[in-house]
Amino acid sequence: MSELKVSNDTSAFEVHAVLDERGKLTPESVGRALSMMDAHGLVVLTNLLSDEEADLGLSLMRQTIEDPDRERSSFASETDNRYLRRDFCSLPANPAVTGFAAQLCQRLERVLSEYCGRSRPLLEVATFTSYLGSSHQYVHRDPSGVISLFAAVEDVSDQQGGTVFVPGTHMYGGAGNNLGGQANELMELFRTQCNCRIFLHNLKKLWRMQGDGQAPLAPGEFLDRVFSTKWDQHQPNLLRFVSGKNSQFSLRTLGPRTLWKLYRHRVALRDLFQLVQIAPRKGTVILYRSDLLHAGPDNRSPHPRRFFGMSIARDIIETKYWHDGYSPHPTLTADPLTFGDLLDFTVAPEPARVLNVRTA
Ligand SMILES: [Fe+2]
Question: How far is the CA of 22 from the centre of ligand 1 (A)?
Fold first, then answer.
């Protein structure tokens, strides 16, 4: 099985964000962004945040990352979280964090309103940090019916990893009828093919890390990532792969029929789908439909990769389903916010917001 092929050319998915006098995306930028979302399931809005705004977001994230009592997210790779390969935590719903989230929503109102009504809940506001030695997530879909946003508060290099998407694999009405009615099957085959390669990539990398001075394995880490019985959907766990207990990728997904189809459709899979890694510049915001195939790659550099993230529901959502995929901070659970609340939130002028951050 060959290596994972990933393109770093994101130009086809980018819209340069132009703001009007009220700080909102201009109708022209909105139109282009919505076309991208329809065609590809994502849009990369460059220069949406100024350097000062991105710095403010980073300072808010640092307050949480440096807090020993931070609220760790309960999804993605918990083993990576345990060994500090990743640090995914929710941000508290305090005025400074809510103000930052509100500013993003207000700036993107004309885009987000196409998907989310005012009464729809803010599912989480979070910070996602990935360190050297993390695993490459399997290609997956998040719980459907959600719009998610990643904001780059500092430059992210290709080596740091960004986020990997498979443009055009979002699940809208009738999408399955495409490609002669084979769209769903071909997308799933492509996901399986990618995940085979990610499984081998992660295993090889862990093997190499055993004698590695740069990202040495912690005591017990190799066993926990390869042979643990604990739940974790994004490790190259052989035990859970063989026993079929990993819903993202296991031997169950690789029956003889699937292997035959992977062979039979190998040319179509190569030509129809493409993995694209988006390693954004500071101030860039990525919007994507949660049902788009994507993965958080491993960080292959010694510099931590940090993103600000938030998700808003597009429909009513069952609490259990919500908490399976998103980790709201207890302060957000206690005092929920909707998309409308964020649109109505009075965002303080810059000096007061900085003051807020410093005194929070
Ligand atoms: Fe995800």
Answer: 32
